[in-house]
Design a protein that fits this description.
alpha/beta, 5 strands, 42% helix, 5 helices, 126 residues, Glutaredoxin
Length: 126
């Protein structure tokens, strides 16, 4: 019984870490490159335990597939482990989406899960 419980909880933890699996984890070097090379990017700040983040991720995964976003790179920052980047980007909460165009922040939103408003926010990277 103990083994079964460990397996179930382990499987749940594995699935929970697959949040926004198609995005690239953002490093400090990649962030510097966004700014210095004038790139367009969408950065999602998530936490594995955050239900709002999971709802946003579903929308962001669909948007990543849209041809309009072919020149936009989607990144993610882990709210619990990447405190240095959170400080650099002045992020105070998980479920924050930050949009960059030409290396400059153009938009930011926190806690929104509606597809229409997330799409409007992220289109500012195009």
């Amino acid at each position: 019984m103990k083994f079964i419980l460990q397996f179930v909880f382990g499987l749940g933890a594995f699935i929970a870490t697959q949040v926004f699996a198609n995005a690239t984890p953002l490093s400090a070097a990649q962030f510097a490159e966004i700014e210095s090379k004038g790139k367009s990017a969408v950065i999602a700040v998530y936490a594995d335990w955050c239900p709002t983040c999971k709802s946003q991720d579903k929308v962001l995964i669909d948007l990543m597939k849209d041809p309009q976003y072919k020149n936009v790179v989607f990144y993610q920052i882990n709210f619990d482990t990447q405190k240095d980047l959170l400080k650099t980007l002045k992020v105070r909460s998980q479920s924050t989406i930050i949009v960059f165009k030409d290396g400059k922040e153009t938009a930011r939103g926190t806690g929104d899960t509606k597809e229409s408003t997330i799409a409007k926010l992220t289109k500012q990277a195009i």
